[in-house]
Design brief:
five-stranded parallel beta sheet; alpha/beta; 9% strand; Arc Repressor Mutant, subunit A; binds magnesium ion; binds adenosine-5'-triphosphate; Rossmann fold; single chain; 7 strands; 15 helices; 3 domains
Length: 370
């Protein structure tokens, strides 16, 4: 029998039916927890372009920590990050709920509200450090550790990052049971983690979420379709997997729309038309959810730079882009920097530039007249 619900999850942060190709990050993290204080996986950095699965990985790592009875605080960087962290660290009722432990004497008393001064930027590093230490002391009585995860780290204020780095460094020096994972767009590494004041975080274990090999996508499609009661053949699986280019968000879109096309016919068998129609729908969604927003707000010259890049099938050197634009390398360098800062392009290891998100190249080629 065919499932009623579509198993694919093409939404931001939506947990996919099968988490493909991320075994190593998860294992490194689990080893970090299991190997005790000082293990490398206890400070982790996860980067990747939009839609590569950073938020999903944070959820999974949170689950792994919870399964070990750790307390987990999940935050997203934006103004007031440290203040929110302090409040959560001090929320003892929340802690009781999370750990499902009965109140004991050590938990008696309401949370103390903080004065303005303690939350001032100047005092924040100390306030956060104390709040962390107090929380960990409570947790250690129950043999539990503390995991803090921060999503969208590229949007964090430098002062917040300094406070967090200082506080964590202290806990680690004092051999407390703590782990922290930061996730964000690749630029965060150069912006925040190369900052002199935050050098401590350079020791973090770095994980870049890259594309997933197409054969792993195909295998996952096979399992997911079959498990949901849909019949799909090997050739169709291969076509569907190839259309994703291994881009996680596209994997969910393609799966979702193919499944949906068969579902619309009330069928438990995938036809070739469902595959082609599904891929077309997935591309439309990807354009709307990723390509158009990525290009939105860019100037005509930014676009000209991207179009010059799109002339090549792979990464381009800055000189080549300038030449294609008919401009000086200096002129092109300005736009290169702007686009890197906007996370639309990325620098390859060889110093060339490539699109941060696959499919942007194809999108620009298709819309060459705009
Ligand atoms: N390993 C994976 N295997 C299959 N699908 C995945 C995987 N990781 C993420 N996805 C899917 O990709 C989509 C994007 O995931 P997610 O929102 O976590 O990405 P992100 O990197 O946080 O994106 P953004 O930078 O926009 O916040 C979701 O639909 C999710 O289900
Ligand atoms: Mg995200």
């Amino acid at each position: 029998m065919r499932n009623v619900a579509n198993p694919f999850k093409p939404t931001a942060g939506g947990e996919p039916p099968l988490l493909i190709g991320r075994r190593k990050v998860i294992r490194d993290f689990e080893k970090g927890l299991d190997n005790g204080v000082g293990a490398p996986g206890r400070i982790m950095l996860i980067t990747g372009a939009r839609g590569t699965g950073k938020t999903v990985i944070l959820t999974v790592l949170g689950d792994k920590a919870r399964a070990r009875k750790w307390d987990v605080i999940e935050e997203t960087a934006s103004e007031g990050l440290c203040e929110r962290l302090v409040n959560e660290l001090r929320d003892r009722d929340g802690l009781l709920d999370r750990l499902t432990i009965k109140p004991s004497l050590s938990f008696a008393g309401a949370s103390v509200s903080l004065g303005e001064a303690e939350l001032s930027p100047k005092r924040m590093p100390e306030t956060l450090r104390k709040a962390m230490a107090e929380r960990i002391t409570l947790l250690e009585k129950h043999h539990a550790g503390l995991l803090i995860s921060i999503d969208e780290t590229q949007a964090a204020d430098r002062s917040d990052m300094i406070a967090i780095a200082t506080a964590i460094q202290h806990q680690i020096r004092e051999r407390r049971n703590i782990a922290i994972v930061f996730a964000g767009l690749p630029q965060m590494v150069s912006d925040l983690f190369n900052d002199e004041v935050i050098t401590f975080l350079r020791r973090a274990k770095m994980n870049v979420l890259t594309g997933i090999p197409v054969d792993e996508v195909r295998d996952a499609f096979r399992t997911t379709f079959h498990d949901s009661g849909m019949h799909i053949d090997e050739r169709q699986l291969q076509t569907a997997a190839a259309a994703t280019c291994g881009y996680p968000y596209m994997i969910q879109l393609v799966g979702y729309h193919i499944w949906d096309a068969a579902d619309m016919r009330n069928s438990d068998e995938i036809f070739d038309d469902d595959v082609s129609q599904g891929i077309t729908e997935a591309r439309i969604d990807l354009d709307n959810a990723v390509c158009i927003p990525e290009l939105h707000g860019l100037s005509r010259n930014d676009r000209a730079y991207l179009k010059a890049m799109a002339q090549s099938d792979g990464p381009s050197s800055t000189t080549a882009v300038a030449k294609r634009m008919g401009k000086t390398p200096n002129y092109a360098a300005t736009y290169r920097k702007r686009l890197l800062d906007a996370y639309v392009i990325r620098e390859t290891e060889r110093g060339e530039v490539d699109f941060a998100v696959p499919f942007l190249r194809e999108y620009l080629r298709r819309h060459d007249d705009e």
